């Protein structure tokens, strides 16, 4: 097992009455891509801000490559890169000026660490005189990543780097992260996209300031044993509600073109379920057994945490 790079122990943070983080503990290993997933307000940004030494935790501790985030904040800042969720560039500076600025803050130059950003920055070079504010979403994101990397950080913190970015740029971005990982950079990245969660080495699922689970994408889907069905009918808009009223229903939610239905019996009876739906007036009922994905597991864990159903 690799050595831990980021160690978080019992970190809590409140803003007035709001609990942003509650007793969060986990580790990120050297050279790992660790994904934090959670809805808006789950506490992902607060955790990133604590780890990047921008705000202090109320309690608990954390270290980055052995350095304490409170007492050693200066040396940590030299060793990490941070790409905040909000636009972090200077819109009136050109592409090149932005990168030069971030390099100078860390007393380095573009030339000195060009190798690390070359893959990414090459794509921006034709636009290097363009003002950052005038770049497309995907290009802004590449520039922000270049700026976060230009001082050759040991650990990279990326807060929802692909939000609002088109699908192709999202894919390219993840390929870049894989290449950075190969250079032994540890990456902690938050994302609201479940398909991206599947690209991480391990993921942490967060809800309302709590860490619900940490595991590899494959293993995490085994955390909540469940029998899941993908169901399609002629009148999809009524289906979720009808399934929720079925006496054995644990949960039902729309999932793309189908509804994912979880039954709370050990050995659910598909035939009965089909009959029930027919009596409810549905036709062309198609029921398929499926294995839970990351999102299904996350929903099940959230429901369990919320106590919205105690049937699992
Ligand atoms: N400076 C602050 N003052 C007051 N409340 C805050 C502050 N920062 C965060 N919060 C609250 O703490 C909770 C966690 O917010 P946080 O931004 O960490 O969540 P998040 O998972 O990153 O979501 P988002 O994607 O919306 O940023 C939210 O309820 C938020 O409103």
From TrEMBL:
InterPro entries documented for this protein: AAA+_ATPase (IPR003593), ABC_transporter-like_ATP-bd (IPR003439), ABC_transporter-like_CS (IPR017871), ABC_transporter_ATP-binding (IPR050763), P-loop_NTPase (IPR027417)
CDD domains according to UniProt: ABC_DR_subfamily_A (cd03230)
UniProt keyword annotation of DNA damage present: no
Key words, A-Z: ATP-binding, Nodulation, Nucleotide-binding, Transport
Ranges where the ABC transporter domain occurs: 6-233
SUPFAM superfamilies listed in its UniProt record: P-loop containing nucleoside triphosphate hydrolases
Pfam families: ABC_tran
UniProt-listed Gene3D superfamilies: P-loop containing nucleotide triphosphate hydrolases
Keyword Membrane: no
GO molecular function: ATP binding; ATP hydrolysis activity
Family membership noted in the UniProt record: Belongs to the ABC transporter superfamily.
Name by which UniProt lists this protein: ABC transporter related
């Amino acid at each position: 097992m690799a050595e831990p790079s980021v160690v978080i122990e019992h970190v809590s943070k409140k803003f007035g009455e709001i609990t942003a983080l509650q007793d969060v503990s986990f580790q990120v290993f050297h050279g790992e891509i660790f994904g934090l997933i959670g809805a808006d307000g789950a506490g992902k940004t607060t955790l990133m801000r604590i780890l990047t030494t921008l705000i202090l935790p109320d309690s608990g501790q954390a270290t980055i490559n052995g350095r304490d985030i409170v007492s050693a904040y200066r040396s940590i800042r030299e060793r990490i890169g941070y790409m905040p969720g909000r636009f972090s560039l200077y819109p009136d500076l050109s592409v090149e000026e932005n990168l030069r600025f971030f390099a100078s803050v860390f007393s380095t130059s573009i030339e000195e660490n060009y190798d690390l950003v070359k893959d990414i920055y090459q794509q921006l070079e034709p636009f290097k005189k363009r003002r950052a504010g005038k770049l497309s979403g995907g290009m802004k994101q590449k520039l922000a990543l270049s700026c976060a990397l230009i001082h050759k950080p040991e650990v990279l913190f990326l807060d929802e780097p692909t939000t609002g970015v088109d699908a192709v740029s999202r894919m390219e971005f993840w390929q870049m992260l894989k290449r950075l990982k190969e250079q032994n950079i540890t990456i902690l990245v938050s994302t609201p996209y479940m398909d991206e969660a599947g690209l991480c080495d391990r993921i942490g699922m967060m809800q309302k300031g709590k860490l619900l689970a940490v595991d590899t994408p494959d293993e995490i889907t085994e955390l909540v044993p469940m029998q899941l069905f993908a169901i399609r009918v002629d009148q999809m808009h009524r289906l979720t509600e009808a399934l929720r009223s079925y006496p054995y229903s644990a949960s039902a939610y729309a999932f793309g073109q189908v509804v994912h239905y979880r039954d709370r019996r050990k050995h659910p009876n598909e035939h009965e379920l089909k009959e029930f739906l027919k009596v409810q007036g549905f036709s062309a009922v198609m029921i398929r057994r499926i294995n839970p994905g990351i999102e299904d597991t996350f929903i099940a864990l959230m429901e369990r945490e919320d106590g919205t159903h105690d049937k699992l």
